[in-house]
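Readers of this paper often ask what the protein records in our data store actually look like. The remainder of this section carries one protein's record, kept here as part of the documentation.

:::
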Amino acid sequence: MYKEEEKAEILNKVLRLMAEGHSISRASQMIEMPRNVVSRWLNENGKGGQATPRDIVHTLGKKREIVHGVAELVTQGVDKRRAVEQYGIGTRLFNKWLSTEPSLRVDYFEICGKGVNVGYSRRSFEFIIESMRAGAAVQRDGARWKLRLVEGALMRYELTGNNQWISKGFATVTGTDILARDWTVVE
């Protein structure tokens, strides 16, 4: 167990690091102490609950509002990094939201009118089916499979570990796939 003087010294270090803008988690890592111990000590001393920008938790609604605002600024020609910074968050956090929440990613790219790294926009199934009828392969955003019409039959192809597409036979499309708005043209 730690003596009161040691605890006070550790808490002072943490509070100094937090004043510099570090989160409780990062400050705990820097002084090599478990975060839960540091949080408990801060709460015991009435100094807990102070949030830094990294500690702030945004609701999905707030995230969506920020994503829409950033997308609008980007369409007006503002650099993405600057647009994100205007909302008081970092681009790393913003990109994490886009990578972990498909609905936010779809909204962002539909507003911007472009797709992720490939120049295709995300579409609903009713729009993407026209591309399939034209002979293109399509997939859901981030999927390791694609669909293609072959001689009138909907076929499924999966990506193997060595980046080869292999046929898996006839495909079925679920209700979730039909309602999704994150379909893209693969080729």
In short: Residues 4-44 form one domain. Strands lie at 138-140, 145-150, 153-159, 165-170, 183-185.
